[in-house]
Design a protein that fits this description.
63% of the residues lie in helices and 2% in strands. By secondary structure, it is mainly alpha-helical. It has a domain of 150 residues.
């Protein structure tokens, strides 16, 4: 691996081994986040089955947990920016260097390309508070004012309204959306595993090992070093 990149924040794929190592790390992250996503979807399923009324705060606790791995997975599968750490970038490098690295690159079918495109658009929408969201929220508020003309808005008071309970229909709708997203992630994860097997020349496998104690200091160090590298404070790989 090249230890003197032109830009220390950008991973360079100079050899096939670079691509193999990179794909291995992306796979590890995707599997970790997928395990959590699957677990929280099951928690939401249980919540729906076991309740007749859906308390807002109880549902939001599950939704918040579900959204965290979902957002990570949207980055890993839906980020198509040039230097993103994502499966789309892996596919792009595989295609660009298939002859140089002697890769048996296989194009994805139309259905898979549509999934990639859907996740790309979803990721871009979910990760930004856009004018589109604010405009739609403003139109919704104006429709409320038509139904309640005795209310003034906007005023000097910012009023935050909460509901104690949610309608079952909205909870089930969000659950079904999460299940659809789960299917997309599962399909792309399987395809990434196949690509990794092609890169290493043999079938890969996933093993899960549970340790009694987690060495969180290592994780903190990786995060801190990553931030330092992003800020240009670390020059070598």
């Amino acid at each position: 691996m090249n230890t003197q990149n032109k830009d220390p924040k950008v991973f360079e794929f100079l050899t096939k081994e670079d691509l193999i190592m990179y794909t291995s790390l992306i796979l590890e992250l995707a599997i970790r986040h997928m395990d959590r996503y699957n677990r929280y979807i099951k928690e939401l399923e249980k919540f729906i089955v076991e309740n007749d009324k859906f308390r807002y705060t109880d549902y939001k606790e599950i939704e918040d947990k579900l959204n965290t791995p979902q957002n990570h997975l949207l980055n890993l599968f839906g980020d198509n920016s040039k230097n993103a750490a994502s499966y789309l970038r892996i596919r792009r490098i595989m295609k660009e260097k298939k002859e140089k690295f002697n890769i048996d690159y296989i194009e994805h079918d139309q259905d898979t390309r549509e999934i990639h495109n859907h996740l790309y658009k979803t990721r871009n929408y979910e990760h930004h508070v856009t004018d589109s969201k604010i405009m739609e929220w403003g139109l919704y508020r104006k429709r409320q004012l038509v139904a309640m003309p005795y209310i003034n808005w906007p005023t000097e008071e910012i009023k935050i309204n909460y509901s104690e309970y949610l309608e079952k229909e909205s909870v089930v709708h969000n659950y079904e959306a999460a299940k659809q997203m789960q299917d997309y992630f599962k399909k792309l994860l399987q395809l990434m595993k196949k690509d990794y097997s092609l890169l290493i020349g043999k079938s890969m496998k996933v093993s899960r090992v549970t340790h009694a104690v987690s060495n969180t200091n290592d994780l903190f160090q990786i995060s801190e070093n990553g931030q330092s590298r992003h800020l240009g404070k670390r020059k070598k790989m």
